[in-house]
Amino acid sequence: MFVPGLIERKRDGGSLTTAEWRELLTQYAAGRVPDYQISALLMACFLRGLAREETAGLLDGMMASGGRLDLSQLGKPVVDKHSIGGVGDKVSLVLAPLVAACDALVPMMSGRGLGHTGGTLDKLESIPGFRTGLSLEETKAQLAKIGCAMIGQTPEIAPVDKKLYALRDVTATVECIPLISASIMSKKLSEGLNGLVLDVKLGSGAFITDPEKSRELAETMIRLGEDRGCPTVALLTAMDRPLGRACGNALEAEEAINALKGEGPEDLHDVTIAEGVEMLLLARMIAPSAKSRAALAAELETAITSGRAAERFQQIIEAQGGNPAAVDDPAILPQAPVVEVFAASRAGIVQQVEPRAIGKAVVQMGGGRQKVDDVVDPTVGMVISARPGAKVEKGEPLASIYARDEAGALLARKALQGSIVIGDRQPAITALIAARVSAKGYETLG
Ligand code: URA
Q1: Over pLDDT 70: what percentage of the chain?
Q2: What is the pTM of this model?
């Protein structure tokens, strides 16, 4: 295979065939093509784009680099959810056990924090002992036993994505819709799903901040899923403010545990139920209607109020080596040594709580990685009670800061000063769940 010829063709606006992608990625996964040639090709893809057929060829090549989870013998529908990532987005921690408690299998494979956004794996690992590196065999056994596993990418699932992603991260080629779509879908479709729900974020805290592009991303992934026999639905949700209150790994794990007991913030609860309804519609192959939605939402609510959802999370934690007592007593989670209150500098109405600055500050405080080998501090972050549209008095607490030292607290204070804007008018609040996208089209909700 003459790789410079492929790079040249892509550079000049041509495309690679499915067979070429497959061969190239097989050779790359085997270490027979160097990173510098793939880097050049990725940049050509970034600049030239990939048409629908070529994106599908790339996806198929990526999936062919690994195996596929086959859960068909377990006799239950298999569904999952993927979020494009945001600030304070801990929905996966609540949703996976909740949907599993409603009798679907959820092989939730997630990622680590990326850029200014947190990652499900880092949040789970803030629970003492929690192990996310299960093998495919262990994952299968756990799914058979308790219906849910919450794991990282295994070496067996689309292994070439891991290499490509690491390369994209350091060659400024992440923000490219076909590359993002093929990357996400290569992992999700390798889980052998009967249905997939995507949470595509809208707003300044999202990776893609142009709403048109968010829609394009959702539509691209839906097409890839549907063409491969996996019914796929996306909800477009607000990320112009953090989701829930907690931002930071252990703080988010605690908020997720509270949500599983029905004691979480309303926006987190609403997004979780909306995505849970979509997952159950796909799992049970029920046509979406007001009636079916209401019935499934009630079922999810019952799983929370009866304690079954929290109990399921406890089983998952225990099965994955963590301390299940964290569900009954979140004080077991690691705690930051420095805690301080951030108060309003004036009276007025909260205009904005800008999420990107908050996400970046959490990373800088030690809650995320600035270099690949950085060790994440699970304790740090902020819990922000201020919501856009709320009336506040001067001196009223707007947030709590959790830091490992005074320097970290200062970073948080500065970020909150810039991010929480207080004014005098009632601001326009964007809809929490703005739209639903499926193979049938785009539906405005909010
Ligand atoms: N998440 C992924 O898994 N891949 C991307 O390319 C972007 C976000």
Answers
A1: 100
A2: 0.95
241 contacts 386 by C-beta, under 8 angstroms: no
Alpha carbons 174 and 373: distance in angstroms, whole number? 19
- Is the distance from the beta carbon of residue 111 to the nearest atom of ligand 1 less than 6 Å? yes
In this prediction, residue 237 has a pLDDT band, given cuts at 50, 70 and 90, of: very high
CA 242 vs. chain centroid, Å, equals: 13
What are the pLDDT digits (tens) for 200-224? 999 999 988 999 999 999 999 999 9
From the list 218, 6, 304, 249, the residue with the least C-alpha distance to 132 is 249
- The verdict on whether 183 is a catalytic residue reads yes
* CB neighbours of residue 114 within 10 Å: 16
Report d(CA 297, CA 273) in Å as an integer: 6
Cβ 180 under 6 angstroms from ligand 1:
yes
Q: Specify whether the CB–CB gap between 266 and 274 falls below 8 A.
A: no
Handedness of CA 338, 340, 342, 345 (dihedral sign): negative
Burial class (CB in 10 A: 0-12, 13-18, 19+), 229: exposed
DSSP string over 75-95: -S-BEEEEE---SS--HHHHH
With the most atoms of ligand 1 within 8 angstroms of its CB, the residue from 59, 183, 199 to mutate is: 183
Interaxial angle between packed helices 266-284 and 91-100, expressed in degrees from 0 to 180 and rounded to the nearest 10: 40
Report residue 366: phi and psi, to 5°.
115, 0
